[in-house]
Amino acid sequence: MLTGFALQHQDELLAFLHQPDNTALLTEWEEIRARRLPSSEENFLYYVLKKYQQTESGKALIEAQRQAEQAVGILRVSSIHSLDLEAQIVELSNLKPDWLDPRLCPQETDFLKQSDALLINIDYPLGFAAYNLLAKVAEHTGKILGVYIMGKSATLNGVRGDVMIPSVVQDEHSRNTYLFQNAFSAADIAPFLVYGTVLDNQKAVSVLGTFLQNSRGMDVIYREGYTDIEMEAGPYLSAVYEMFRPKRHPINELVNLYGLPFDLGVTHYVSDTPLSKGTNLGVASLSYFGMDSTYAVSLAVLRRIFQLERARTG
After folding, report:
1. What is the pTM of this model?
2. Pairing relationship of beta strands 87-91 and 228-230 according to DSSP bridges
3. What is the spatial order of strands in the sheet that 87-91 belongs to?
């Protein structure tokens, strides 16, 4: 979305679609172009780029993409230890407005040249490792302007491909219940979501592990008004507390995170519906339709960052 790389290689990607194994994707593209589907051409090309780069003929675009990213101040940092987690560091001042995804309003990006902000994007680990990750980033960083989390979750009241926006998180690690003002609402994401629904003002539970859940336990969770089951929001919020208060996060308390000195947004795209048999990632993949919700959230995050940075730089 920040480099427009897939859009610049549209002809090569469309040639890939005409290969015999890609009939279904080609049909989808033709439906989108004919406006018989309200889906996004940009999202589709981002998805196809990933598929193409996994083929022998598309491997050359991996290095080409890296070079294009470096040209606009995006540095990829690969993992050198045991966890396979990549990160990117983005210098906002080096981004090229005419390369940006058109939904990011590139005609209003003069403020980017005045920005001294860095965007750190991390493909984070599951569970409590999220706490260690954010705590370490905060320890070695100056002023934090915003923390935005996009994770996947199980839902007790939606379907796969939906987006959940919680404002309450019960954390089974710390046993805290966190209350916070989420930077996002349904209105921020719904305009970019085609195949799902956005549910805001939800209550989430950060569990110790997905395989520890059963129907009886989930029934109790649902009766308590919790609809969003995931693994990282609680640990992240424990780290957020320590960024806000210079002390260790509490245990087994009701924790108010209103009034943070930085922006906080937490979103989850639905990958599992555990109360329904045969509709979870143990038997299927989100594939193309999961991409729809992840890009809708990504757009909301980037638009939020741009909005706040525009105001901060005057």
Report:
1. 0.92
2. unpaired
3. 74-77, 87-91, 118-122
Cα–Cα distance for residue pair 53/43, rounded to 1 Å: 16
Give 21-35 as a DSSP string: GGHHHHHHHHHHHTT
> What are the beta bridge partners of residue 179?
168, 256
Token readout for 252 is 């087994």
Sign of CA dihedral 132, 137, 140, 143: negative
Residues 6 or more apart whose Cβ sits within 8 Å of residue 261: 244
AA letter at 287: S
- What the chain holds in terms of domains, given with CATH numbers, is 5-119 (no CATH), 125-313 (3.40.50.1580)
- Give the rounded percent of residues in the chain with a pLDDT score beyond 70: 95
pLDDT at 291: 83
Cβ atoms of 202 and 167 within 8 Å: the answer is: yes
pLDDT in tens, 76-96: 998 887 777 889 999 999 999
Angle between helices 41-53 and 287-313 (to 10 degrees): 120
Name the helix (H) or strand (E) containing 169.
strand 163-171
